[in-house]
Design a protein that fits this description.
By secondary structure, the protein is an alpha+beta fold. About 40% of the residues lie in helices and about 20% in strands. It has a single domain, classed as YhbY-like (Translation Initiation Factor IF3, 2-Layer Sandwich).
Length: about 100
Amino acid sequence: MLTSKQRASLRGCANQIDTIMQVGKGGIGDTLIKQVEDALVARELIKIKVLENCEYTAREVSQMLAGETNSEPVQVIGNKLVLFRRNPKTPNYDKCLK
């Protein structure tokens, strides 16, 4: 569980990363969950855009993906969301968690 200070720090780090995935009319399926899992292992901190034709809001997508991938929702602004899951083997964002 992230503290509010850690979450704030990760939000700052997330400002510098690009959106790497989109959720559209296909919604949240096994393929998307697998892609999010792989991205979290590789990057730890990921940004996802929810398209207008998606049946869910960005907040709903954030909660569903966080639950499915055991990650932490960091931020939801408009149609973008940020997820974080620490990778103990290759921690990239330890500087943001202090």
